[in-house]
Amino acid sequence: MPEAPGVEYREIPGRGCLNLRGDADDPTLRDATATTLGTELPTEPCSWQSSGDTRACWLGPDEWLLIVPDGEQSRVEQQLREAVSGPLSVVDVSGGFVHANLGGDNAAKVLQKSSPYDFHPRNFPPGRCVQTVFAQAGALVVAIEDGSFVLIFRRSYADYLVHWIADAAEEYGYPMHRT
Amino acid sequence: MLHIRCPYCQEMRSEEEFSNAGEAHIRRPPDPAALSDAEWGDYLHFRKNPRGPHREVWVHTAGCRRYFNVLRDTVSYEILDVYPAGVPDPDAPEETTP
Ligand SMILES: [Zn+2]
Which of A59, A80, A95 is the last residue of a domain? Predict the structure, then answer.
């Protein structure tokens, strides 16, 4: 039996995402997201809220990324448009992004090698999400419940970033799984 | 390498995540047609370029993508203050309504 890998990388298939912009103080926006997604909109900077298979990530004081099971996008978009009376922009950006999971004992080290952000668990525990420079490209990094990380990055960077991660993780005994 | 506190992300972040967008608190003249060429040229092209504290605009390019204001010492590079976009220039003389 080979040793447990220090880093595991897997693409997460079947994810859709929407960019949402609106007024965080608008009660119709807060109610609509709670009803539609089953989760509150996070208003604390660089944090997320989730319910089941759905996650809302803070991107800015009036901007969020809603991650939903693929196929749910138009339902979410429609319900938000119907229910929100304040300023609203909701755009299905699923086609532009790759979602991947980076796990294993040394996953945080791979992040630390790739970014100027402080990914030490003391600074970046589960519940946080951050948009930052990642391997000179950009990524949204989400620290999820089980201690691993979800990376969301532009599809056009995917090939480059997968090779970057493979190179950065090689010293930790990295095997690659693509699903 | 500077560490800059983004007033929206509310965290210290590396300079690499930001871009400088020049002098802050430059107001577009309300009636450009009333200005002389010299005054319009001043507005478009001339900046303070001080030695010492300088109010400037930065954008958190790789983060939340918001613009905000920074008071930075151009000699020591020390960042003396950071505040959101839309806050009036603290150095501006009080506006009086006629
Ligand atoms: Zn920011």
Answer: A95
Q: Please, which pLDDT band fits residue A82 given cuts at 50, 70 and 90?
A: very high
pTM comes to 0.92
Centroid of ligand 1 to alpha carbon of A140 (angstroms) = 13
Interface predicted TM-score (ipTM):
0.90
Token duo for residue A174: 């990295």
CB B4 within 8 A of CB B58: yes
Task: Give the span between the Cα atoms of B84 and A24, in whole angstroms.
Answer: 17
Phi, psi of A123 (to 5 degrees): -100, -20
Q: Select the residue from B5, B11, B83 to test the A interface by mutation, using most A Cβ atoms within 10 A.
A: B11
Give per-residue pLDDT as tens, B31-66. 999 999 999 999 999 999 999 999 999 999 999 999
What is the distance between the alpha carbons of residues A104 and A91, in angstroms, rounded to a whole number?
Answer: 33
Quote the domain boundaries for residue A161: 96-172
A75 alpha carbon – ligand 1 mean position (Å): 30
B49 token code pair: 């370029």
For residue A45, which residues of chain B lie inside 8 Å, CB to CB?
Answer: 8-11, 64
